[in-house]
């Protein structure tokens, strides 16, 4: 692998991305993914439910649109790499009692947040949402239709995570009829040896059949998830997976790094450490992947995400209105996030709050007619300012002084004098440039954006924390 390589963006003479081994070694420490700021490790472990109720009232008064997230934890099969909050079971009859409780929780939150606010974004995550039988999916969405102002226009963003192994002939038509218009397919790798090692047997033809059917029905912005760093992966084998995926031509791709933490996630104890690619092989896989996807016409949105130039994520980034939340990158920056189900995290302009991780405890709270909030944080003005700055950098790859002054009535150089001083080595290393008006992330800095954002993270001021995954 060469020490430095660059690929040109599609519509610019500047390279979109530069890989520099020396810079990666210097800055590839641990750091947050910034799906929230403050990050989840700063949440108060005994957040009072009353605080969430007050935050919901402030949100209701703002009359902002809503994003509605539902965590559906059931999976029929255990994937050994998984670190999600899940329940492994073959018993489909568990789905309806869970959904009934979600609707009870939804009824409480609908009153708190306001039933008439337009739900412009909706997402089912998991677990495996397609674990739910057809009648249970219909029951859940019908309940939401009574409790919330669901939208039917083209501008809505209603997405669902799909395991192609849990799809029958009714699944996609049912989801389409329920109002979903985007899907994300879990793939991880098409290599048979890798699939066997992680207990996820999913032939390429199965994934392709679901993708083609989804396109035929009318789903847009179809995403595929891949994971690199899994057992038996090599740069050569992952390159073959990538070619197969490029042939399928998804609108978006998420390429996640596998973090092997068997002490924290019991299923990972089934994966033998000596079968994993070594750190250098992992870097080579990532380097090759980014180069190949850019070469194939995808744009590097940031972090782990790629999209075709005409996809709404790419368009939003070019227009400076991309946003990031617990579901990753999104075009709906104006939404407050109302979240339902075990471990789900909600968000308003000035607070985050999370449901109990433990399913029986969550069930007991809902059965008692109470909210199941256990963690959360109220944001100070400084938190909100820093969240805005980190959001600009991680989504738009730029930070405009005039825009900052307009948004916060503050002078960037005065407010962040210490941070700008600590940013100087990164400017010297050409990760970021400062022309006096704008801080602009450079091609070599895009890969290390988490390190740049960390400069503005007050809670990480003492340096990188090992409580987070490595940046690359």
TrEMBL record:
Tell me which EC number(s) this protein carries: 1.3.98.3
Residues involved in [4Fe-4S] cluster binding: 75, 79, 82
Cofactor stoichiometry and binding remark:
Binds 1 [4Fe-4S] cluster. The cluster is coordinated with 3 cysteines and an exchangeable S-adenosyl-L-methionine.
Return the InterPro entries for the record.
Answer: Coprogen_oxidase_HemN (IPR004558), Coproporphyrinogen-III_oxidase (IPR034505), Elp3/MiaA/NifB-like_rSAM (IPR006638), HemN_C (IPR010723), rSAM (IPR007197), rSAM_horseshoe (IPR023404), rSAM_sf (IPR058240)
- GO molecular function of the protein, one example? metal ion binding
Q: Which residues bind S-adenosyl-L-methionine 1?
A: 69, 126, 161, 345
Which cofactor does this sequence's record say it needs?
[4Fe-4S] cluster
For biological process, the GO terms are:
protoporphyrinogen IX biosynthetic process
Involved pathway(s): Porphyrin-containing compound metabolism; protoporphyrin-IX biosynthesis; protoporphyrinogen-IX from coproporphyrinogen-III (AdoMet route): step 1/1
Reactions listed under catalytic activity: coproporphyrinogen III + 2 S-adenosyl-L-methionine = protoporphyrinogen IX + 2 5'-deoxyadenosine + 2 L-methionine + 2 CO2
Task: Tell me where in or outside the cell this protein is found.
Answer: Cytoplasm
Domain annotation Radical SAM core: ranges: 60-299
Going by the entry's taxonomy, the superkingdom of the source organism is recorded as Bacteria
Swiss-Prot/TrEMBL keywords: 4Fe-4S, Cytoplasm, Iron, Iron-sulfur, Metal-binding, Oxidoreductase, Porphyrin biosynthesis, S-adenosyl-L-methionine
Which terms in the GO cellular component ontology are assigned?
A: cytoplasm
Instruction: Indicate which residues the UniProt annotation says bind S-adenosyl-L-methionine 2.
Output: 81-83, 127-128, 188, 200, 225, 259
Q: Which residues cross the membrane?
A: none
What is this protein's function per UniProt?
A: Involved in the heme biosynthesis. Catalyzes the anaerobic oxidative decarboxylation of propionate groups of rings A and B of coproporphyrinogen III to yield the vinyl groups in protoporphyrinogen IX.
Q: How does it assemble?
A: Monomer.
Q: Which family does it belong to?
A: Belongs to the anaerobic coproporphyrinogen-III oxidase family.
Stored PANTHER family: COPROPORPHYRINIGEN III OXIDASE, OXYGEN-INDEPENDENT COPROPORPHYRINOGEN III OXIDASE
Q: What is this protein called?
A: Coproporphyrinogen-III oxidase
Q: Which gene encodes it?
A: hemN
């Amino acid at each position: 692998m060469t020490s430095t390589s660059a690929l040109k963006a599609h519509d610019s003479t500047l390279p979109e991305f530069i890989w520099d081994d020396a810079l990666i070694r210097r800055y590839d420490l641990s750091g947050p993914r910034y799906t929230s700021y403050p990050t989840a490790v700063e949440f108060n472990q005994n957040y009072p439910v009353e605080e969430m109720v007050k935050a919901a009232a402030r949100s209701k008064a703002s009359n902002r649109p809503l994003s509605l997230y539902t965590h559906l934890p059931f999976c029929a099969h255990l994937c050994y790499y998984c670190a999600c909050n899940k329940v492994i079971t073959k018993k489909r009859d568990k789905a309806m009692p869970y959904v009934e409780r979600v609707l009870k929780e939804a009824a409480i939150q609908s009153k708190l947040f306001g039933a008439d606010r337009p739900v412009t974004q909706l997402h089912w995550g998991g677990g495996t949402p397609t674990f739910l039988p057809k009648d249970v999916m219909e029951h859940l969405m019908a309940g939401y239709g009574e409790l919330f102002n669901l939208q039917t226009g083209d501008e809505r963003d209603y997405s669902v995570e799909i395991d192609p192994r849990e799809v029958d002939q009714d699944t996609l038509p049912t989801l389409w009829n329920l109002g979903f218009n985007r899907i994300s397919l879990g793939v991880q790798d098409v290599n048979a040896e890798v699939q066997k090692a992680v207990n996820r047997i999913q032939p390429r033809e199965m994934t392709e059949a679901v993708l083609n059917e989804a396109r035929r029905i009318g789903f847009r912005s179809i995403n595929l998830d891949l994971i690199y760093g899994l057992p038996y992966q090599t740069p050569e084998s992952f390159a073959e997976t990538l070619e197969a995926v490029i042939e399928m031509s998804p609108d978006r791709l998420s390429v996640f790094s596998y973090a092997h933490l068997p002490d924290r996630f019991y299923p990972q104890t089934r994966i033998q450490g000596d079968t994993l690619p070594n750190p250098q092989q992992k870097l080579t896989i990532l380097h090759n992947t980014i180069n190949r996807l850019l070469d194939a016409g995808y744009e590097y949105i940031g972090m782990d995400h790629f999209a075709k130039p005409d996809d709404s994520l790419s368009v939003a980034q070019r227009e400076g209105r991309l946003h990031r939340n617990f579901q990753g990158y999104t075009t709906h920056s104006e939404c407050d996030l109302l979240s339902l189900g075990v471990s789900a995290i909600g968000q308003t302009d000035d607070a985050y709050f999370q449901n109990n991780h433990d399913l029986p405890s969550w069930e007991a709270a809902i059965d008692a007619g109470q909210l199941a909030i256990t963690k959360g944080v109220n944001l100070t003005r400084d938190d909100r300012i820093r969240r805005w700055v980190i959001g600009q950098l991680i989504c738009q790859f730029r930070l405009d002084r005039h825009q900052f002054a307009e948004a916060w009535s503050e002078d960037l150089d005065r407010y962040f004098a210490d941070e700008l001083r600590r940013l100087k080595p990164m400017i010297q290393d050409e990760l970021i440039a400062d022309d006096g008006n704008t801080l602009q992330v450079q091609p070599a800095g895009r890969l290390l954006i988490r390190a740049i954002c960390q400069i503005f993270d007050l809670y990480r001021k003492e340096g990188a924390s090992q409580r987070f995954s490595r940046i690359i």
